[in-house]
């Protein structure tokens, strides 16, 4: 009988999971290749905001940039410290970042999103409040808009897009609050037709006990007569899904599997994971997770309800 592998037990909140997943995405072979010779598009999304921070940690000069402020020029709400000072910029400019050498640059995660789920329901961040998607070309920030960048993608490039749901088959699902399909509706055809590397960072907390393919057949913006928040459609998407499990394996674990989820008093949405491997690798992973612990949760914009003029219960 084979000896049991060494094991450690870790618990991650949603924000801690996002940080872990982001570190793994940065270490993907296809991402590292595209950072040297290629294009990487990182679409809006709270998990992707962490991916931006981690990837830009490898981009020369990003740690010396000014901190990102709100589009109105006011200081960020909920921005982690490290000496942020005021700085204004025009709308439509690429986000700017700050971080000490060896640390992930900081990004305004509140604004690096198009749609979010809050205690008010499914919400949409107003366009004028959103940040511009990050486009990297050959390891440097590009001012090119995402739409133009998508048109020029090739099979050697990387498209990173988060999701809202994940089912037991590994199919991810993306909400669409825009009647024309939004980002995923406009980009997916090009990405799939050309064989672009499609990376989907998503936490285990978003796993649902129902087929996303079947759910997508039954929902749609115009199929709801009432909704708490914005009514949405659901698009099944297929790519390289990176959850905490894949992240841990990328970062050195021999195996990992979830054994529990949930929590209270700030632990809501947490996942409990058993990680297996050599003592050396497990010690490294435990040290990494220990550094990640305490990652602040993403807050919504001050005074932002997400309804942009709608009642929280749409249809009334």
Q: Can you walk through the features of this model?
A:
The chain has 316 residues and is α+β, with helices and mostly antiparallel strands. It has one domain. It has eight helices and 16 strands. The strands form five sheets. The protein has a six-stranded mixed beta sheet. The protein has a three-stranded antiparallel beta sheet with strand order 1-15-14. Strand 3 and strand 4 form a beta hairpin. Helix 1 crosses helix 3 and helix 1 packs across helix 7. The longest helix has 14 residues. The chain is globular, with a radius of gyration of 19 Å.
Q: Give the biggest sheet.
A: 6 strands, mixed
Average pLDDT, all residues: 84
Order of helices and strands: EHHEHEEEEHEEEHEHEEEHEEHE
Q: Strand fraction band?
A: 15-25%
Gyration radius (Cα, Å) is 19 Å
Helices and strands in order:
Layout: E1 6-12, H1 14-26, H2 29-36, E2 39-42, H3 46-56, E3 115-118, E4 121-124, E5 134-137, E6 140-142, H4 146-151, E7 158-160, E8 165-166, E9 172-176, H5 182-194, E10 197-201, H6 212-218, E11 227-228, E12 233-237, E13 240-242, H7 244-250, E14 255-261, E15 271-277, H8 279-292, E16 313-314
Parallel strand pairs: 2-7, 7-10, 10-13
Antiparallel strand pairs: 1-15, 2-5, 3-4, 5-6, 8-9, 9-12, 11-16, 14-15
Q: Main attributes?
A:
316 residues, alpha+beta, 6-stranded mixed β-sheet, 3-stranded antiparallel β-sheet, 21% strand, globular
Summarize the structure.
By secondary structure, this protein is of the alpha+beta class.
């Amino acid at each position: 009988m084979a000896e049991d592998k060494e094991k450690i037990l870790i618990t991650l909140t949603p924000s801690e999971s996002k940080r872990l997943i982001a570190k793994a995405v940065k270490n993907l072979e296809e991402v590292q290749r595209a950072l040297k010779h290629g294009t990487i598009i990182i679409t809006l999304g709270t998990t992707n905001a962490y991916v931006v921070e981690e990837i830009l940690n490898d981009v020369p000069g990003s740690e010396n940039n000014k901190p990102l402020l709100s589009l109105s020029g006011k200081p960020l709400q909920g921005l982690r410290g490290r000496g942020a000072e005021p700085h204004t910029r025009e709308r439509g400019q690429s986000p700017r970042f700050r971080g000490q050498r060896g640390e992930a640059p900081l990004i305004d995660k509140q604004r690096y999103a198009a749609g979010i789920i809050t205690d008010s329901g499914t919400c949409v961040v107003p366009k004028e409040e959103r940040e511009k998607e990050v486009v990297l070309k050959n390891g440097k920030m590009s001012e090119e808009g995402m739409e133009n960048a998508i048109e020029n993608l090739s099979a050697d490039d990387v498209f990173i897009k988060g999701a809202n749901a994940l089912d037991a088959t590994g199919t991810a699902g993306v909400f669409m609050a825009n009647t024309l399909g939004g980002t995923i509706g406009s980009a997916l055809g090009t990405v799939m037709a050309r064989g672009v590397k499609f990376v989907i960072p998503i936490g285990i907390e978003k796993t649902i006990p129902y087929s996303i393919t079947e759910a997508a057949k039954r929902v749609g913006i115009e199929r709801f007569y009432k909704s708490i928040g914005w009514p949405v459609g659901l698009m099944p998407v297929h790519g390289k899904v990176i959850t905490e499990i894949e992240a841990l394996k990328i970062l050195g674990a021999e195996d990992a599997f979830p054994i529990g989820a949930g929590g209270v008093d700030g632990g809501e949405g947490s996942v409990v994971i058993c990680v297996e491997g050599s003592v050396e690798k497990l010690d490294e992973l435990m040290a990494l997770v220990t550094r990640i612990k305490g990652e602040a949760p993403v807050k919504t914009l001050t005074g932002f309800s997400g309804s942009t003029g709608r009642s929280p219960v749409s249809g009334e």
